[in-house]
Specification:
The structure is a single chain. This protein is of the alpha/beta class and 337 residues long. It has three domains: 43 residues, 434 Repressor (Amino-terminal Domain); 131 residues, Rossmann fold (3-Layer(aba) Sandwich), CATH 3.40.50.2300; 128 residues, Response regulator (Rossmann fold, 3-Layer(aba) Sandwich), CATH 3.40.50.2300. It has twelve helices and twelve strands. The strands form three sheets. It has a six-stranded parallel sheet, with helices on both faces. It has a four-stranded parallel sheet with strand order 7-6-8-9, sandwiched between helices. The protein has a two-stranded antiparallel ribbon with strand order 10-12. β3, α7 and β4 form a beta-alpha-beta unit. α10 packs across α11. The longest helix has 18 residues.
Length: 337
């Protein structure tokens, strides 16, 4: 005869920890009104029994689930992908799963449709990585009682916003090139409707103004290495260019190839700085100086803010801005004499 083994239930956890099942529920939901010693006993019992919360049952009982809905663009861009991965890891530590709705374009209608699909699943809250102007309206239409955090969203709507200080990162990159002795710095930008791109342009311009340096025209691009390559071909023919700040590391990679093919050496002839610190940046030729956002810190701040909204039952007027770090490598040198 086959013996059936029953999965542990919340009552089993409560019995082992010597507490009520309501206390176990509070611990699972990270409720603040639980004494530290009691929380540790419950967590130890959960680990010993291998208890896994029944999210489906909780959804039926409370009208929500232990699932966070995440809206993001279908993309291999490093920044959004790294944020999604970090958010899933951070959510798991708090007993939540993450359900991702990917959209092909960041327009108002596709984002609104993605939000509707997630709300139909009775998610506990929403995280939106939609850093473009065209998607802002879809977020504005959400009822105020739905927990929502926007990542790198509209800086003019700071309620429930976690963002990297794009301007500070761009300022540091530009100032580093100026400190190496370059008279000015050219900028290859991302798409002009992205808040990330706008912040990086603003920081670049401010650094040049503060140094009393000439501000060249922006070289518009997208986020791809192919766009960087095309722009790099133009920069390679401009003999007065000695320093370039690229809006991300993929653009910088394309610029590096175009300069190499034109016989312009980095950093001997042209210095180059990127943004994002993709894992491959340290292995470019030469290794790339770049700006590193802490994507895990972004995810942690995002989850903290979202859980606070879930507990309070209201949207919180909170904005958390994280400053990125400049990572110096071998792609910057003084200008040629």
């Amino acid at each position: 005869m086959v013996k059936l083994v029953r999965d542990p239930a919340m009552t089993d956890v409560a019995r082992l920890a010597g507490v009520s099942h309501q206390t176990v529920s509070r611990v699972l939901n990270d409720h603040p009104n639980v004494r530290a010693q009691t929380r540790l006993r419950v967590q130890a019992a959960i680990a010993e029994l291998g208890y896994r919360p029944n999210r489906a049952a909780r959804a039926l009982a409370t009208g929500t689930s232990q699932v966070i809905g995440l809206i993001s663009r279908s993309s291999t861009l490093y920044g959004p992908a790294a944020t999604v991965a970090a958010l899933a890891e951070a959510a798991l530590r708090h007993g939540f799963a993450v359900n991702v709705e990917s959209v092909r374009t960041l327009g108002r209608r596709p984002v609104a449709d993605a939000i509707g699909r997630l709300l139909d699943q009775r998610v506990a809250g929403l995280v939106a990585i939609v850093p473009v102007e065209s998607a802002s309206g879809a977020l504005d239409d959400l009822p105020a009682d739905i927990p929502l955090v926007s990542v790198d969203g509209d800086p003019s709507s700071p309620t429930g916003l976690v963002t990297v200080d794009q301007a500070a990162g761009a300022y540091a990159a530009t100032a580093h090139l100026l400190a190496a002795g370059h008279r000015t710095v050219w900028h290859v930008s991302g798409p002009d409707d992205w808040f990330d791109s706008q912040g990086r342009v603003a920081g670049w311009q401010r650094a040049l103004r503060d140094a009393g340096a000439e501000i060249p025209p922006v070289m518009p691009a997208d986020w791809s290495a192919a766009a960087g390559y095309r722009t790099g071909q133009i920069l390679a023919r401009m003999t007065g260019v000695t320093a370039v700040f690229a809006a991300n590391d993929h653009l910088a990679l394309g610029i590096l190839r175009a300069l190499h093919e034109a016989g312009r050496r980095v950093p001997d002839d042209i210095s180059l700085v990127g943004f994002d610190d993709v894992p491959e940046a340290a292995y470019y030729i030469p290794p790339l100086t770049t700006v590193r956002p802490d994507f895990y810190a972004v995810a942690t701040a995002c989850l903290d803010l979202l859980l606070a909204q879930i507990r309070s039952g209201e949207r919180l007027a909170d904005c958390r801005t994280l400053t990125p770090a400049l990572i110096t490598r071998d792609s910057v040198a003084p200008p040629p004499s």
